[in-house]
Amino acid sequence: MQTQEWIEACETEDIEAEDVIRFDFGNRTFAIYRSAKGEFFATDGFCTHENIHLSDGLVMGEIIECPKHNGRFNYMTGEPKKRPACKHLMTYPVKVDDGKVWIKLEV
């Protein structure tokens, strides 16, 4: 039986505004984002089109662009915004506590 737990992903200072970093936990990879307003978000770390690391992509406003085929997603909702991306990204709850970014995962 899996339970949900808050997992420390990074320090808030590890991510610049309008940027993304990679976070690996167990055998899974995630992308952690910081918006221009300083809010933090988390998604699966791979593009749903061809399993390319999104942390190598470009953040533009609320959009992450995949570095391989330029598919785009809204990283706040996981919604695909430009083909060839057509399948939603999984998103995860995020909280910030004492300068640390935490994401809620099933473990």
From TrEMBL:
InterPro entries: MocE_2FeS, Rieske_2Fe-2S, Rieske_2Fe-2S_sf
Domain (Rieske) ranges: 7-103
Database matches in Gene3D superfamilies: Rieske [2Fe-2S] iron-sulphur domain
GO molecular function: 2 iron, 2 sulfur cluster binding; metal ion binding; monooxygenase activity; oxidoreductase activity, acting on paired donors, with incorporation or reduction of molecular oxygen
Keyword Iron-sulfur: yes
Domain of life: Bacteria
Keywords: 2Fe-2S, Iron, Iron-sulfur, Metal-binding
NCBIfam families given in the database record: MocE_fam_FeS (TIGR02377)
Protein name per Swiss-Prot or TrEMBL: Rieske family ferredoxin
Originating organism: Paenibacillus whitsoniae
